Every structure is written in structure tokens, then in C-alpha cells.
Amino acid sequence: xxxxxxxxxxxxSTARAGYELYTLVLAEDAMSCAxxxxxxxxxxxxxxxxxxxxxxxxxxxxxxx
Length: 65
Known about the structure:
- This protein is α/β, with parallel strands linked by helices.
- The protein has one domain (2-64).
- Helix content is 57%, strand content 26%.
- The protein has helices at 7-19, 36-50, 56-64; strands spanning 2-5, 24-32, 51-54.
- Helix 1 (7-19) packs parallel to helix 2.
- The radius of gyration is 11 Å and the shape is globular.
- The two termini are 16 Å apart.
């Protein structure tokens, strides 16, 4: 599960590297960016190609099952 600061730089770089090794879950509400449009571009166009984009609450519920 990934989250973090600078959605379009730090999180996206980590996701691109991790994609080759792991099944990724990207917690959209657990990351942020200085520019909302950069955050949305990564979440809507890049991340769906690298893994599953979900909300933290949904990830926590899935782990509890």
C-alpha cells in the first residue's frame, strides 16, 4: 500500500519502481501534492495503470476480512 507526500513525484516514482515487483494498492486519500491538478493527474491517469487506487478506509476494511 502506498501513500505519501508529493503524489506526482515521490509516490509516483515509488509506484513505478514497485510495479515491476509488487501488486500495488495506492491509497488516494493518504497522499497529497502542492497542486491539486498534479495529484488528480497521477491518481486518474498513471496510478490505475500501476495498481489499484482505493481510499484508506476501504483498504483497512479489506485487511480486516
